[in-house]
């Protein structure tokens, strides 16, 4: 039974890494259920249990860091778009001023 769970966990991890969005959602649900079984059983003190806990912690940390990176990237993109817009407005205003001065 422990080996079957281990194989299922590895399959879920593989799907989470390479599957489609729908497959990842399904695999994440299975992974969470299997992980709960593993963590609630006595085999969590075995090397397999320790590795499972470690991988779960790494997955959680990775998702958290990814969310933070996406947030920072979004904020930087907004900053860049605003700066480009402001610079273009200034260039347009100066071009109009230059044309006005040239025609005088």
Write up this protein.
This protein has helices at residues 2-18, 21-40, 47-103. It is 90% helix and 0% strand. It has three helices and no strands.
List the topology elements.
Layout: H1 2-18, H2 21-40, H3 47-103
What's the gist of this structure?
By secondary structure, the chain is an all-alpha fold. The protein is 90% helix and 0% strand.
Instruction: Please give the radius of gyration in angstroms.
Output: 26 Å
Poorly predicted ranges:
none
Order of helices and strands: HHH
Helix segment count? 3
Q: Report the end-to-end length measured between terminal Cα atoms.
A: 90 Å
How many beta-strand runs? 0
* Residue share in β-strands: under 5%
Instruction: Summarize the main sheet.
Output: none
Mean pLDDT: 77
Structural class: mainly alpha
Keyphrases for this structure?
104 residues, mainly alpha, rod-shaped
